[in-house]
Design brief:
The protein is of the alpha+beta class. Strands 1, 2, 3, 4, 5, 6, 7, 8 and 9 form a nine-stranded antiparallel sheet that branches. Strand 1 and strand 2 form a beta hairpin. Helix 3 packs across helix 4. The longest helix is centred in the middle third of the chain and has 12 residues. The two termini are 21 Å apart.
Amino acid sequence: MPPGSPYPDAFYDRDPRLVARELLGAVLQCRTADGVASGRIVETEAYLGPHDPACHAVAGRTARTWFLHGAPGVAYVYRIYGMHWCFNAVTLPEGFGSAVLVRALEPIEGVQLMRRRRSVRTGSVPADRDLTNGPGKLAEALGIDGRLDGVRLDGAPNAAGALTLRAGAPIADAAVIVTPRIGITRAAEWPLRYLVAGSAWVSRTPKAFPRTPY
C-alpha cells in the first residue's frame, strides 16, 4: 500500500507473525495534548494467541486483556513491572487474543518532545539512540499509556489522544533478522522477534540468542 496510508483493518486480521514482519518500516505516530511524536518501527514480536504460553491471552478475557481480545486494528496497551507501558497492535478476529508488540523505533517526529518525556523519569536526557530502543522506552517517548488502550490504529482519537500506524518504505526480506523473544520464560525459544538488521535503534539482543535470516 502507498507509504503514509493508515493500514486497514484487513491488514491486522492475519497471522501475527506476518503482521509483525510487515510492520517493520511502518511509522507509528502518537498525538496527545502535549504534541505529536512518531518513529519508524525497527523491531517487533509476535504473540500468537491462547495457544502461545507467553501471550496474555492464556488468562482469558479479563479487565487487563480486554482489548487484546478486541477487534483487529486496535491498540492493546499494558503495564509491566508497575512502571513501563507497552504498545501492541491487535491481530486476528475479535475474541481470539493475538497481537504484535512494537519493541523499538527509529525516531522521526517530535524528538525534542521525546527527550523531555524520557528525561522526567531518568533525571537526564538519554542519547538519541536510547530514546526508543525498547518497548517501555518508546511508549514513554511517544506518550503512550493505558488511556490509549483500545484506541483504533487508524488515527481515530479518544479523550487521551490518537494512534496511527502508517505504511512506510518496505523493508526487504534480506534486511530482516529473526530471533527468540526477549524477557520471557515460557516459549522463550520460539523465533518470533523480527528486527531490521544493522539498525542503531534496535534493542539489545542477548549474546546467546540465535540470529537467523527471515
